[in-house]
Amino acid sequence: MNPTTSPAIAMDRAILAGNLHFPVLIRTGDDAWQELTRIATGLAADAFWLVTDAGLPRAHTARVLSALGSAAPTRVLAASGTGTARHATPTPDTVIVALGGSRTIEAAARLAAGPGTRPRLILVPTTPRAMTDTALTLEHPAAHGLAPTLVWAQPDLLRTLPPDGLRTGLAALVRNVLAVSPSFYDTAAALLRPDVTGFDAGLMARVVALNADIRATLMSYDPSEQGPAMAFRYGRTVADALLSLDPRTSEGDAAALGMLVAARIAVLLGLLDPAAERAHHELMERWGAPRELPAPLTTDALAAALRRGAPGGPVPVPNAGPARMVLLDGLGAPHVVRGRMLTEVDDDVLRPALGVIAPHTPVPDLLITH
């Protein structure tokens, strides 16, 4: 079916995070913007401040401005650069609207969480990562526990992205299935099927809804993500170190490599069954994610970066020694050490584990079914 003639989709989700609650409305189709106008009018704002980025397609900005403009005066602020949102001071009745990717959402959250009264915040993510991850958590760096009034997830806004931009943005789905809810493994595998070509708004809507459902399972009793919800950090330790060495690598691809290393470490430590590691590789293959380091990076450089910054801890400390990371005892079963979900990994385990993503290294024999 041609995407332009596909029926409109309306899926309502909600995330309860402790005593905070926010709706996630997933919509497709041109008529959905009228609903956003009705919601905006009901907020009785004295003004909307639209925080966005210059790189966003003008049509996206025009759509949102049109939806908000009839409800209250609307001002556009840049998320970065000269004249940024950080220099503005909203009133209590201002509604800040973030239109963009993860960095734009964080810029808008900083503005809303600034000193004084806190204005309301609406998130309109325009990248897969923002739509499936950043907009659904209260723990990105700028949030300070601030819950949005609304997350408006419209997959139509992803239509202008290149195919690989869509693929790499699905890291949260893979992570959430492996580390939190493996019962959705087959569902995720179907959504990630490699035969899909072109943009599919319906598929993306299902991905967003599934991620919201999985996040809600842990955030209801762990809104700060310092307990069981630390599972959402799975793969991040190695991914952060990799990105520090090569910022050109997409965050999704870095996350994929980070999860493969974490699985290998858990197998080497005797925590994870090889079949669960094999499940990682199978899902990565369906996703189309890389399974080796991009050139010219080496495992030695990555090991040094991990030792140097000890990613995974609350504050990177030079020469901090072992890396700390989330590991699994099984799919959906994070390993817990003394009540914490961050495990120290010594160099004698880390170095051989990094071999699983070394360029031109075959999948270990341990992954073969016996």
Could you list the spans in which at least 5 consecutive residues all have pLDDT below 50? 1-5, 310-319
Number of extended strands: 11
- The percent range for helix content is 25-40%
Class per helix and strand makeup: alpha/beta
* Main sheet record: 7 strands, mixed
Amount of beta strand: 5-15%
Q: What's the number of helices?
A: 13
- If you average the pLDDT, what whole number results? 87
How do the strands of the widest beta sheet line up side by side? 1-2-7-6-5-3-4
Could you state the order of secondary-structure elements as H and E?
EEHEHEEHEHEHHHHHHHHEEEEH
Outline the secondary-structure elements.
Blueprint: E1 10-17, E2 20-27, H1 32-42, E3 47-52, H2 58-69, E4 74-78, E5 94-100, H3 102-112, E6 120-125, H4 128-132, E7 150-153, H5 163-168, H6 171-179, H7 185-191, H8 201-219, H9 236-245, H10 251-268, H11 274-287, H12 299-309, E8 323-325, E9 328-330, E10 333-334, E11 343-345, H13 347-354
Parallel strand pairs: 2-7, 3-4, 3-5, 5-6, 6-7
Antiparallel strand pairs: 1-2, 8-11, 9-10
Describe the structure.
- α3 links the parallel β5 and β6.
- The relative contact order is 0.10.
- Helix content is 38%, strand content 15%.
- The protein contains 13 helices and 11 strands.
- It is of the alpha/beta class.
- The N terminus is likely disordered.
- A 7-stranded mixed beta sheet has the order 1-2-7-6-5-3-4, sandwiched between helices. A two-stranded antiparallel ribbon has the order 8-11.
